[in-house]
Write a structure and sequence with these properties.
With about 650 residues, the chain is of the alpha+beta class. It is built from 16 helices and 33 strands. The protein is about 30% helix and about 30% strand.
Length: about 650
């Protein structure tokens, strides 16, 4: 609508929607972006990472394939190690343990049963192993019967001390071992080979000591043997160690041959020996039994051929066979520390062949065979079954009685010895700590809590002698006093032994060994006593006497007499004096007295005054009257009885 006289308004331009063109993304302006302005921008590494992460996130929702493993579980294992072996997260293992009510950390050690339970619950199969598995296959691998061949018999000579065992062996091998033994009694195990004149076969003899202390040695001898020769003196008969030897032979289930020795003596009675053996279920052939008996004389060399013939016959019946082409197995009969040669072990090879250069294991000790020496002192390259040899090359002296085996490499040897050494340490620690266990053990600990100890350091020439000494000293101990062995070892007395003895104020005992120059000087300087012995009797007797000195003496009461109070006098400057009549025995001045009133002891003390009339007397006999006054006591009444006694101190002995 147009108004008159108004200017015409221009029409508005129609609105158009304009789409701007794509603008170039502009980032931060830097020197690099300014220079590379025309380059095409690529995706950053961070962007690429985010993309792969997103893709992975989607994939993780898909079910994974379960890995089922055979898990090897030892006797104890950490949670971390168990999780690694199962390829599981340790958190899951801990969660499962928490469900069972046990709170654990990742480093905690759990037992094999718990570990097996968890592994099976997670769907894995389990293989249980023990630390002792390292010893598997070392011993008693069965030989193939086609590879076996005959071997020499191993004969152990046993019997009572001084019945002529070593003399008999000397006669058989034409040597003189007895002259080298201290006190004429064997204190070591010796192993020798003798050639049988009849059959020409070799027989291995093991000589054992007869002294009571060497029980363990005799048991070892019986364990490695095929035949036991029981030596009984015709003039002495069956004695305690003879009976023990019979029991060892029966326990080892080996045949016995009885050698009745010393038949050349005028008071020899072989029939008595045969009869006495019947009491111990040993029935000789002449009395209708199956045990062979031979009358011999080691001194006159009588019937020695017959004894060897009987041994060969018995060996033939036993049909002894073994495989000599396999790695050697044997038993350590004796071990010692030789100053020039180092640790030396007397070994009886039982199976296979032991060669120079073999890697060997015996107990907690290992080594490489450097040399093999026969009983005649000759160097050997190898030792077959039933051959006794001295083996050089051990790292340390093994225990007597340990089994020896040849292993394929040093790694296996180290594995076995480290396991055995660990076991040994654990056993030693358990015996020292006493293992607080049963009520009975706790009571025995209480009993020995106030026990006096006699500290000792014992060094011996060989392992067997050391074992016997320690056994004898242990038997000496009572609830009141006992020998405490600070250190026991094989070899000479060193400076370190003297230092240890000084620290604990102990005595040092050397059995067939001596102290070196430095140790002897140190002992003299520090006042440490070193005692040397060659015979076990003397050693045990001396320790027994020394330990007896630690025992508290016994106080014994001896009654002297009784007196009755007739009157009580009150004397100035003296106090109360009782006028008494001695009814029986004697009353002595200075003796101990008891004042008895109405059969109840009211005072115990000493007599201070004993007067007869006006004179001080030493004693008053029955029927006489006297005056008595007590030390620091004055409540005496008429009719009381005075009992007079003496206390004696008696020194006790073990």
């Amino acid at each position: 609508m147009r108004r008159p006289g108004g200017a015409v308004r221009p029409a508005a331009a129609p609105k158009t929607t304009h789409k701007p063109g794509p603008q170039k993304e502009r980032g931060r302006l830097t020197v690099v972006t300014a220079l590379n302005a025309d380059d095409v921008r690529e995706r950053s590494i961070a962007s690429f990472r985010r993309r792969t992460q997103r893709l992975k996130g989607h994939a993780s929702n898909e079910p994974k394939e379960k890995l089922v493993r055979e898990v090897i579980i030892p006797e104890a294992i950490t949670i971390q190690e168990l999780a690694n072996r199962m390829s599981e997260r340790a958190v899951d293992v801990i969660r499962m343990l928490m469900k069972q009510g046990a709170m654990h950390k990742i480093t905690d050690v759990i037992d094999a049963d718990t570990a097996q339970l968890i592994a099976e619950e997670l769907g894995h199969s389990v293989k249980r192993v023990a630390a002792s598995d390292v010893e598997e296959g070392l011993f008693d691998v069965v030989d193939d019967s086609t590879d076996t061949e005959p071997r020499s018999p191993v004969v152990t000579v046993m019997g009572h001390v001084d019945h002529g065992k070593t003399s008999l062996l000397d006669a058989l091998r034409h040597a003189n071992v007895v002259s080298g033994e201290a006190g004429g009694i064997t204190q070591h195990i010796g192993a020798y080979q003798v050639l049988s004149p009849e059959s020409g076969t070799k027989i291995t003899f093991i000589d054992t000591p007869g002294h009571a202390a060497f029980t363990a040695m005799r048991a070892r001898g019986a364990k490695v043997t095929d035949i036991v020769v029981l030596v009984v003196a015709a003039d002495d008969g069956v004695m305690p160690q003879t009976v023990e030897a019979i029991n060892h032979a029966k326990a080892a289930r080996v045949p016995i041959i009885v050698a009745i020795n010393k038949i050349d003596k005028p008071d020899a009675r072989p029939e008595r020996v045969r009869t006495e053996l019947l009491q111990h279920e040993v029935q000789v052939e002449s009395l209708g039994g199956d045990v062979v008996d031979v009358e011999v004389s080691a001194k006159n060399k009588t019937n020695l051929d017959k004894l060897l013939e009987m041994i060969a016959l018995q060996a033939e019946i036993l049909d002894l066979k073994t495989n000599s082409h396999r790695p050697a197995e044997g038993t350590v009969i004796e071990a010692k520390l030789d100053r020039g040669r180092g640790p030396v072990a007397t070994v009886l090879v039982q199976r296979g062949t032991l060669r120079v250069g073999d890697i060997i294991v015996a107990g907690a000790e290992m080594g490489r065979v450097r040399a093999l020496i026969s009983d005649q002192g000759e160097n050997l390259d190898e030792a077959g079954p039933s051959v006794p040899v001295e083996v050089l090359g051990f790292n340390g002296p093994p225990e007597a009685g340990d089994r020896l085996a040849v292993v394929e490499n040093e790694a296996r040897a180290r594995q076995v010895t480290s396991y055995r050494a660990h076991q040994k340490r654990e056993n030693a620690a358990a015996s020292i700590s006493g293992m607080r266990g049963s009520l009975e053990q706790m009571m025995s600990q209480l009993k020995t809590a106030g026990r006096k100890e006699f500290p000792l350091i014992v060094k011996a020439d060989v392992q067997g002698s050391l074992e016997a000494i320690l056994g004898s000293l242990e038997k000496l101990g009572t609830d009141e006093v006992a020998a405490r062995i600070l250190h026991a070892g094989v070899g000479g007395i060193s400076e370190s032994d003297v230092t240890l003895a000084e620290g604990f104020n102990a005595a040092i005992i050397g059995f067939s060994v001596r102290a070196n120059k430095e140790a002897a000087a140190a002992a003299k300087r520090n006042g440490i006593e070193i005692r040397y012995y060659n015979i076990i009797y003397d050693l045990v007797d001396d320790i027994k006497k020394a330990m007896s000195g630690l025992l508290a003496p016994t106080l014994r009461e001896t009654m002297l007499g009784n007196a009755q109070i007739l009157e009580v006098f009150n004397i100035s400057k003296v106090g109360k004096v009782a006028g008494c009549r001695v009814t029986d025995g004697t009353v002595e001045r200075g003796a101990n007295v008891r004042l008895i009133r109405d059969n109840v002891v009211v005072h115990e003390g000493k007599l201070s005054t004993l007067k007869r009339f006006k004179d001080e007397v030493k004693e008053v006999v029955a029927g006489q009257e006297c005056g008595m006054a007590f030390e620091n006591y004055g409540d005496m009444r008429v009719g009381d009885v005075i009992e007079c006694y003496r206390i004696e101190t008696i020194q006790r002995s073990l």
